[in-house]
User: Fold these one by one.
Assistant:
Number 1:
Amino acid sequence: MRKSNIEAEDAALLIHGLSGSPLEMQYLAKGLRRAGFATLAPHFKGYGFGERSDPFATGTWQQWRAQVLDYFDELARNYRSVCVSGLCVGAVLALDLAAERPGRVAALSLLATTLAYDGWSIPWYYFLAPLAYHTPLRYRYSYRERHPYGVKNESLRKWIAREMSEKTTSIAGASSLPMTAVYEAKKLIRHVRGAISRVNAPALVIHAKEDDVASLKSAEFVLEKIGSKDVHFVLLHDSYHMVTLDNEKEVVADETIRFFCDRIRKTASAPVAGRTPRDVTNKSSAAA
């Protein structure tokens, strides 16, 4: 991977949500690029939407993790520092990455972290799902995305609903979530809950008070159990689960950019002979 911008010294890896796409991270990516970051928002095979003939062929959480690690390591070889942001289960993968690469992640931005599917829009019968996880049913059943689609903004919600009725996906992700994907996500979540004390990277936790998919308990668990001594929390009051798309996407982007730039400024190494590190603080202010 070559640097796409000769001036970019620092990079950001952006991890979309389960059965989603890089479009979910598009607004944040644009803001980070304006702030001087090289950004990479890949589509993860199996974990993301599409690119598989069988919708239930989602692969294992270990295969998802391997892709995240590979992308991170490639960025780390080419840039001075690498920050990581993830949405929903993407935030869980970001935590897993930081636990696997201690001391190497410059900063984390954990958006709508999903350590349990316990939001107010989750159907009551979801809690019967474990009964089917170990039967062939998990290769036949999908959860159909439903109102409010993780979005509080009414105009955007109507557009997403129309897209999902006409297509198999939208900017907010796939129209249905295979049970195989949820099954693997639950195993990933269980693993990260046990490993989170090993995460020592600076962490920004952003969560909506009215998150319809994952309640504030997920954010509270991160704040209480993470091993990092540098943790900052932002509570959103006008968004649901898809915080990178919803009413406060500007807040999410601005807070993430500010946090990344500040942590890079604090931890940047001494200048290499003949080079002067860019002034990320000024660039962040210009982008805000």
Number 2:
Amino acid sequence: MKEVLEIIAKSLVDYPDEVDVKEIVNDDQTVTLELRVAESDMGKVIGKQGRIAKAIRTVVKAAASRDNKKASVDIL
């Protein structure tokens, strides 16, 4: 899941070297992925009315369900 998010984010931004994904496993076995990008790339990752962010979350959730896990994405 982390790799999927990294690939998607790096393909969207102008500064792919500044993309950072941190994976946190919670007590209830859900996975939280924290995505950090350059300040100038934040709009490209979120998109108009959050459409790109919603699409990213959907893809990550689909990848997680293949592994019988639950995942969420936080864009910081």
Number 3:
Amino acid sequence: MAFLPVPFSGSEMRDVRMKGFAERADVEEVDAFLRDRVRVLEAEPVALAGCVGRVLAADVAAEVDVPGFARSAMDGYAVKGEETFGASAYTPIEFTITGQSLPGAPFAGRLERGSAVRIMTGAPLPSGADAVVMAEVCSERDGCVEVTDAVAPKKHVGAIGEDIRRGETVLRAGRRLRPQDAGLLASIGVAKPTCRRRPRVRLVITGDELLPAGSLPEGPRIVDSNSVVLRALAERDGAEVLPFEILPDDPEKVRAALAASDADVVLVSGGSSVGTEDHAPRLVAELGELDFHGISMRPSSPAGVGRIDGRFVFLLPGNPVSCLCAYEFFAGPTLRAQGGRGRAWPHRRVQLPLARKISSAVGRTDYVRVAIEAGRVLPIATSGASILSSTVRASGAVVVAREIEGMPEGAEVEVLLYDDEPSEPEGA
């Protein structure tokens, strides 16, 4: 078992760093560990304008009817429906126009027999009226309107509470709010729905060789791309990424960043393996608990999971593909669960046959980048964990479970698509 006892001493950590990983945990073991320990974050009121994408923490019941008044569903004339019976193109019935009703400016009086009120869509139905005749079957002249089609009472009238009834539960706790949900909340006067707090994420990006994103590579120095990917992934999963800066491979600076108490989750990129400059695993063990270090997966075998004062720390390899892979397997589900979302990967999935076999080893979980060509799945030739461009060329990934020794050509596989939505055809 790869669960590391605590405390995990500095001498023990030095031995691990010199010898490499004595054993590795299974992906399922790490996932089960996280499932058992991750807790949803507390609730907080959220301004309506910023609630989309957040998860409701409590049911929402309407305190008002929507609409709160009978209203016209058409442009036309408000009448007493029974007074139009018998109207036709050959025998129109004439009504005296006594006023008009507009949205926000209703007719103030009461409709009397033989009268009609000009009315617009959405305007309140005048007192005494019970139907609306469409403008298309009416002709207005000299203060009167001729109706050539009969309407029954309640015709073209939106009733009180037709949309939402007072006391009705309109949204349930656990729902991830969509734009139309926010609109519904606005319609019933909810200004600040109670939602789960967004997880706060601290990025700890380490490496003497790193230049800030947006720089040009120069000499032996490379540009930090992991922070760009991790920020986007964390925000996709509903988290708030705190300000950060690239840190040198200085143990004390890394220690200070790990010990900061302003985050719910810490994502460490780089410095997490067993090299002489990989300080993060030792520091996590000293500051808290290093629960796992080394996982039976490809790529991302140097990944790790720990906890410091209740905060989860994910050790993500510096190689870009390994970083992406470890995030998707472990950090992503944790952030989604903390924010009240489901743990499942947020990818569209398709089932397609393999154009070429996938080789794998029993006892190891593989994350295989694949392309889709002519309706078949083609594994990307490169296996290098540092080849970030392979994820751009790929349509998605296939996860090969540890109990499977590869997949033969023609086998149906599930592809986790990188694109959230289908691509628009050119010229669309």
